Amino acid sequence: QVQLAESGGGLVQAGGSLRLACTVSRTISSFRAMAWDRQAPGKQREQVARITISGNTNSLDTVKGRFTISRDVAKNTIYLSMNSLKPEDTAVYYCHADTWAGTSDYWGQGTQVTVSS
């Protein structure tokens, strides 16, 4: 069983910054990709940013230029640096391990991010 532990969420004012971290119990190089998903109240979960095994990244259009996903393979940890936060970024953020075809993905328990206006 793979464990994903998120940290770094909290309450911040609009325009502020937060950095989320996710430490994984297995080497992150064993996954096809790692990602951050989020779910706001009453909305569907969406993928915010993703980093593939080769290091390629992509992100949601609404966070481009503000959020950056990165990783430290030696520490089995991924990060999400969030700048210029907006109230609409308020959500529970989940760390997501995207496994290869034929196996189930893994998610962490989530960390709350609240941006006040």
Helix-strand sequence:
EEEEEEEEEEE
Helix content: under 10%
Enumerate the spans where pLDDT stays under 50 for 5 or more consecutive residues. none
Q: Which value, in Å, is the CA radius of gyration?
A: 13 Å
Structural class: mainly beta
Number of strands: 11
Q: Average pLDDT value?
A: 96
Number of helices: 0
Distance between the termini: 40 Å
Residue fraction in strands? over 45%
Shape estimate: globular
Largest sheet: 7 strands, mixed
Model description:
Helix content is 0%, strand content 51%. The chain is mostly beta strands. The strands form two sheets. Strands 2, 4, 5, 6, 9, 10 and 11 form a seven-stranded mixed beta sheet that branches. A four-stranded antiparallel beta sheet has the order 1-3-8-7, with no helix packed on it. A hairpin with a 4-residue loop joins strand 5 (46-52) and strand 6 (57-59). The mean pLDDT is 96.
Write the layout of secondary structure elements.
Blueprint: E1 4-7, E2 10-13, E3 18-24, E4 33-39, E5 46-52, E6 57-59, E7 67-72, E8 77-82, E9 91-98, E10 106-107, E11 111-116
Parallel strand pairs: 2-11
Antiparallel strand pairs: 1-3, 3-8, 4-5, 4-9, 5-6, 7-8, 9-10, 9-11
